[in-house]
Amino acid sequence: MNGRMQVNDSVLAVAEIERLDSLRTLVDSQRHRIVTLLMDEALTATELAERLEIGRTRLYHHLRLLEQHGIIRVVERRIVSGIEERRYRSIARTFRVNRSLLGSQASEPEISDAQASFLEAMAADLRARAISGPASRVDDDSDVLVARTFLHLNDARRRELRTRLSALIHEYRNPDADGRETELGVALYTTERDAT
Q1: Rounded to the nearest 5 degrees, what angle is found at the Cα of 23, between the Cα atoms of 21 and 29?
Q2: Closest CA to 78 of 69, 66, 87
């Protein structure tokens, strides 16, 4: 026996987040980074800790939570120096919130609050970037783009914009060999309440 067990490490194109606690688990910036790395390839805790520059003890906590919520899974186990080494992989390349299924567990404000936490986590990451010192610049004064606009779109054009934004994100999904970690956040939603 070679002490190795491998399972299919294929990744779904899209997986739905159907529980509020799973959404809250994924909102954490560090866990989101872990999942993003595991979308591209299967990695061990040691490899993840090196890439993310965090301690393995803390990393195991994040991996356990992500695995409990079905966001990542173990795709390979092998014995290394008498210790089981696990290789993890994200279950999907994209996660989508299923608001109708979440709605049976949580109120609309709770769901929106959990989704807004993604934007708050991004804001915290942007603030931390500024505190840690200037990142090496690209071609212009800053490689940061923050934009906010209010549009007036009918349902068909709003769906078209959502589809195009999703396609653009998917187009840049594969990492560049010489790339740097880059964070992108998108929020598209109607601001008007339905009149009742």
Answers
A1: 115
A2: 87
Q: Which two tokens stand for residue 5?
A: 């067990």
Report strand pairing: 12-17 vs 92-97.
Answer: parallel
Interatomic CA distance for residues 190 and 185, integer angstroms: 17
pLDDT digits (tens, 9 = 90+) for 135-165: 544 445 567 888 888 888 999 999 999 999 9
Computed from CA positions of residues 76, 80, 85, 87, in that sequence, does the dihedral angle turn out positive or negative? Answer: negative
Q: String of b and e for 11-26 (b: at least 16 CB within 10 Å)?
A: beeebbbbbbebbbbb
Measure the CA–CA gap between 97 and 146, rounded to whole angstroms.
Answer: 24
Say which amino acid occupies 63: L
DSSP type of residue 175: P
Q: For residues 172 and 160, what is the distance between their CA atoms, to the nearest angstrom? A: 19
pTM over 0.85: no
Beta strands per DSSP E along the chain: 4-6, 12-17, 43-44, 72-80, 83-90, 92-97
The low-confidence residues of the chain, meaning pLDDT below 70, are 1-9, 101, 132-142, 193-196
- DSSP, res 37: H
